[in-house]
Structure formats: C-alpha cells, structure tokens
C-alpha cells in the first residue's frame, strides 16, 4: 500500500491539477492515506493527524504508544 498510493497519485496528477496539494501520509492503522494538505493543515493539532509522519520503511512500530 505504501508504494501504491504515491505512484497512483503521481499518475493522477497528470490529469487532475487539483491533486497538486494532495499528499500521502500514514494513518494510525499504519496504512497509507491520501489527504489534502489543507485538510491536514486544519487538523494537524488533533489526534490522529497530530501523530502522522512521513513513511519510513525502516521504522519499527512494535513500541508505538499513544499518550
């Protein structure tokens, strides 16, 4: 999923200019999620958006906590 979404978005941007502000982020279930940057900007202080971060294939999620 983490490889599919960015590639799909890249292809779609060629035909849909309104997708220029769309990003691919990870959500709380560790799956990919496509969100408008404006949506993220409005909600980045609210959980789960406050915990989103760029995907890192090397990161270990076994000690992930919510506090």
From TrEMBL:
<dbReference type="GO" id="GO:0006325">
    <property type="term" value="P:chromatin organization"/>
</dbReference>
<dbReference type="GO" id="GO:0005634">
    <property type="term" value="C:nucleus"/>
</dbReference>
<dbReference type="Pfam" id="PF04921">
    <property type="entry name" value="XAP5"/>
</dbReference>
<dbReference type="InterPro" id="IPR048337">
    <property type="entry name" value="FAM50A/XAP5_C"/>
</dbReference>
<dbReference type="InterPro" id="IPR007005">
    <property type="entry name" value="XAP5"/>
</dbReference>
<protein>
    <recommendedName>
        <fullName>FAM50A/XAP5 C-terminal domain-containing protein</fullName>
    </recommendedName>
</protein>
<feature type="domain" description="FAM50A/XAP5 C-terminal">
    <location>
        <begin position="15"/>
        <end position="65"/>
    </location>
</feature>
């Amino acid at each position: 999923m983490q490889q599919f979404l960015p590639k799909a978005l890249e292809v779609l941007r060629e035909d849909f200019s309104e997708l220029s502000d769309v990003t691919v982020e990870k959500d709380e279930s560790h799956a990919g999620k496509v969100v408008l940057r404006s949506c993220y900007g409005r909600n980045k202080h609210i959980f789960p958006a406050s915990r989103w971060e760029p995907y890192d294939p090397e990161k270990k999620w076994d000690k992930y906590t919510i506090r």
